Amino acid sequence: MDKKVHSIKWLYLTVFLLPVLGMAQEKDKEKETKIDEVVLVGYTKVSKKDVTNSVSSVKAEAIKDMPSTNAAEAIQGRMAGVKVALSEGSPGADVDIVIRGGTSITGSNAPLYIVDGVQMDNALTVLSPKEIESIEVLKDASSTNIYGARGANGVVLITTKSGRKKARTLINYNGFLGVRKIQNTIDVLDPYQYVLYQYELYNKAGIDTDITTFTNRYGTFDQLSKYRDVKKRDWQDEVFGREAFNFTNNLSVTGGSENSSFSLSLNNVEEDGIMIGSGFKRNMANFKYDYDISKKLSLGLNARYSRQTIFGAGTSATGSQSTNRLRNSVRYQPFEGVSTVNVDEFDPLFADQTNLVNPILLANNEIKENGRNDLMLNGTIEYKINKNFTFRSVLGYVQRDEFINQFSGTVTSVARQNNDQPVVVLSKGQTRRITNTNTLNFRKTFGNHKLDLLAGQEIVKTDGETLAMTIKWFPKSITAQEAFANIQAASPPAGLVQDAPRAGRQPDRLASFFGRANYIYKNKYILTASMRADGSSVFAPSNRWGYFPAASVAWKIKEENFLKESQTISELKLRAGYGLSGNNRIGAFLYDTFFTTSSDYGYAFGTNVTPGATTGNIMANKNVKWEAAASKNVGLDFGLFKGKIYGTLDLYKTDTKDLLLLTQIPKDRGYEYQYQNSGSTENKGIEFSIGSAIISNENFSWNIDANISSNRNTIKSLGNNASASANYYYFPSGWQNNLNDFLVQVGKPVGTYWGYVTGGRYEISDFDYNPTTQIYTLKDGIPSSAAAANGAKPVQPGDLKLVDLNGDGIIDNKDMTDLGNAQPKFYGGFNQTFRYKNWDMSLMFNFSVGNKVYNANKIEYSTQYLYRDNNMLAEVADRWRWFNDLGEKVNDPTALAALNANTTGWTPPAGAYFLHSYAIEDGSFLRLNNVTLGYSLGKDFTKQLGLSNFRLYFTMNNVFTITGYSGYDPEANTRRNPLTPGVDYAAYPRSRFILSGVDITF
């Protein structure tokens, strides 16, 4: 069904039905029944009052009224110590979830996801928020260690909704229609400012050929005034400014009989991206069925299928400068029709001279389809042996099929490097995981004693294959879809052959044994102890097993006689815990040597190339073993005034040792890297959450929940990964080749920015001037930034000045220093919900204070680098001037100083890109993530319609952001590496999302 039909349906619902149904009676208030809330903690459910660990929980009630296509967005800012951030704004963008700062340096810091008892990678991207019953996040090792492998970064337990036994069948439909729009753009020079800057670049050196080139392209100086009236071409708006529609439909059917229950959930999302050619489609189905064969034996079945495709090549957020597509929208000349270069047609000479392509042409010449199909099947059998013993077995199968089809048309740099012919990259992969978990649970209460014992065994078998092909030399007239379907249409020129396909396998095996004991005495004192042993195939046979013990205690102070009758304190519990959890996130078989074949390593034999073999650049290490994280946690849970105010306070410290690091080694061994257990880190912090039912009566309620967290990450040791004398090494962010802009050093946080300190610009007073030669020479004692910032050219007045930190009179890499890091001083969120009769309203905020953001865009878009005819940031208009209002170059010191009396900026550097403090900005922000306003019909009226519930709602996501950050988004994080956080480079701009929808239950 096309968008017009959808639009008509929604117009009917919102314009016609709303006024009619609005005459319904007010919504009846249902009596609230308080129940003992339970949370899922390590293979079993525990009463929240008896939890001894640090656990954050979000229930379906908290997110049921928040429409979103991404479950991670629905929990953003809701849990203390859990940082949820979108890496950028593209459809289907990756979501970063980091718990308590993360523990690894070069490995992944993503948590372990368990969905309905089965491990699933990055599960929140394949779940609809409407089907989630609860999300529990285990944060300390005394709770995560029961999951052993990969539990060091926290565990996210997700339970999806089920039907209820002895319940009538309910059908619920929730759907919304919305539109996205870019929220802000980067300010650049207007046409007149642009040509004045180009005039300076072409004329400053006085080279006749450059002056002639400028005149032919833009006109004489006297003619430049016409650019004041030239219409500005806003390429960012043209590429990212479209209204992107979203259609989301959720349908669920639940019910049950005397002995069974079922739940069927369907989800469909069709979403355009704000960028030309981008979009997202997803279809999901989830079926759950539970059946009691007898009073002792019950069965459960869960089947889930998800199919999604992300369209669009994006902005190359994770790539380098060579693949940055955002640059073309920011730096392409901001006008058309006046220059001799036609912006609506591809000019290969102009592309070579400027390293730019018309961004609209480029967007239409880069086609990418990134698809993923996920299948999850799991069955559960539970047998109650007697009133004390219960056996439970879960068998799960998860399969993920992924493919990427990418087409690079004739205007792209990829095609221009291959005879100006289109290039296609096809890749596909499949991962299969079989999980079997068996547990035996013993529970017994005798007198003042309550005992809960659990013993279990688990196996996880993972297999997968990948295949990638690059096919070159397609006919120039071929379309992307024709190329994807007919790769045989590519014809190599005489003497050339296609690149060999690249294939790989990543098998993984895990065997585990675990146990836990929970003991409660007099409902006051609680002791929990657990142990897990994991055997992983990624390690050599002698190091496969890791052992992870944990223990925690709790004291229910409220149950003591001196507080039991208190009318003020309704709950008070003190908790303490210690535990070890493990991490094995490295590739398979790195303890052994394998060979890879490729034509890149081949040799000529006759007229053909015979592929050769190589061991790669990672050296085997049979001694590598488990990374382990030891966590200490002390917590306090409290409730006041019969639960009207409630909260939690946690203090923690996590020491991670035997870090799995990809270490640089001496190249005389024939390799560049080796995985080693080398180094340790420390995370320590404090978390506080509080909530209150401020007002609660029949007609009006007001609830607020808030949390705030602070985490400090410090590198304690780098082992063999650093020089013995300095205990540090440098690391590149990757946006620019050979730019080591991060420092990894003992005693400093992970993700420390490394660069120069900006010192403003050189002024006339810094130079001696020779009137005869008209040459400016730096005075003695004034250090020169030439080598670092000016491509080794002598500095001139107005050039960028860097600070000589060591005072040796030379500005070089010895003057680079710590420029801060991405760690906030504190972060968190708060949300408020209001209900007045039939109306409801919610507001969700998240915030971060004190974090620094590395604005790499700012460096690139204010540096001339190697090219002219590139647009720049708007602030470059305030640069140092060499030409007066008549277009005459000014050399006289007095006149030059007067000309620049009101300018503050420096001349854009002409050398290579480098990091200086100008690009390190305060990333503090307060964001209103979501505002939702809803109206529900009264019960009497819905019954007349044969409905159980009818609610209309209006929502706005990403409403506003209060920040001093100058880029698109202070939360952008595009490097995807724990060592290089907080880098904003070529991120897809975030958008504001406005939608309206309906929630109906039959």
Automatic annotation (TrEMBL):
InterPro entries found in the cross-reference section: Beta-barrel_TonB_sf, EF_Hand_1_Ca_BS, Plug_dom, Plug_dom_sf, TonB-dep_OMP_SusC/RagA, TonB-dep_OMP_SusC/RagA_CS, TonB-dep_rcpt-like
Keywords attached to this entry: Cell outer membrane, Membrane, Transmembrane, Transmembrane beta strand, Transport
Major localization listed first in the record, in broad terms: membrane
UniProt keyword annotation of Membrane present: yes
Top-rank lineage group of the source organism: Bacteria
Localization: Cell outer membrane
Protein name: SusC/RagA family TonB-linked outer membrane protein
Residue ranges annotated for the TonB-dependent receptor plug domain, each copy included: 48-155
Membrane topology: Multi-pass membrane protein
UniProt lineage: Bacteria, Pseudomonadati, Bacteroidota, Flavobacteriia, Flavobacteriales
Family assignment from sequence similarity: Belongs to the TonB-dependent receptor family.
